[in-house]
Write a sequence for this structure.
């Protein structure tokens, strides 16, 4: 009888250690991703026309052309550098497949958004998500800290660079997790 108790205890300990290791790997991946996207804060367009050496590097990573909007291309470039599978695209709306979406405004979240998850902003005039960036800190209050490309000080979706921003959580339409799912 006691041999079974020890064996079951060993199995439980083993199972927990695998779960902890898995969680740790994902947390390390989140930190690595945060270092990558944070290192780009301060990148600016050359002429204000979705151009410049680094902006064009982002666009190239998403198979997009010079001059295209690049918020999703920035996200794609960062995720590629971190080795995280995702849709390779410069179209913000494509970054939110159902299997990866953990939060949709007005519905209960399936998981708490974390550092490195993607947020999407919905634009009524477009009828879709028109801007995407990274959640840097979801926090406990009404404010979320983000890092996003093709924005500006006024938080426009057609900006001039990569910025660290504070946004109201109620502005966030969707959140996608490509690290844990």
């Amino acid at each position: 009888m006691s041999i079974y108790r020890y064996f079951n205890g060993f199995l439980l300990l083993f199972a927990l250690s695998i779960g902890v290791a898995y969680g740790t790997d994902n947390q390390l991946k989140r930190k690595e991703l945060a270092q990558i996207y944070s290192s780009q804060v301060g990148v600016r367009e050359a002429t204000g026309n979705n151009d410049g050496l680094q902006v064009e590097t982002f666009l190239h990573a998403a198979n997009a052309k010079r001059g295209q909007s690049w918020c999703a291309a920035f996200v794609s470039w960062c995720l590629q550098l971190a080795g995280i599978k995702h849709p390779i695209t410069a179209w913000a709306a494509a970054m939110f497949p159902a299997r990866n979406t953990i939060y949709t405004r007005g519905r209960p979240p399936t998981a708490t958004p974390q550092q490195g998850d993607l947020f999407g902003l919905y634009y009524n005039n477009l009828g879709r998500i028109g801007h995407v960036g990274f959640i840097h800190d979801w926090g406990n209050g009404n404010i979320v800290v983000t890092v996003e490309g093709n924005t500006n000080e006024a938080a426009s979706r057609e900006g001039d660079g990569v910025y660290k921003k504070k946004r109201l959580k109620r502005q966030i339409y969707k959140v996608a997790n490509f690290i844990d799912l």
User: Anything to note?
Assistant: The longest strand covers residues 128-137. Confidence is low (pLDDT under 50) at residues 1-22. The helical segments are 2-38, 53-61, 71-81. Residues 5 and 77 are 50 Å apart (CA to CA).
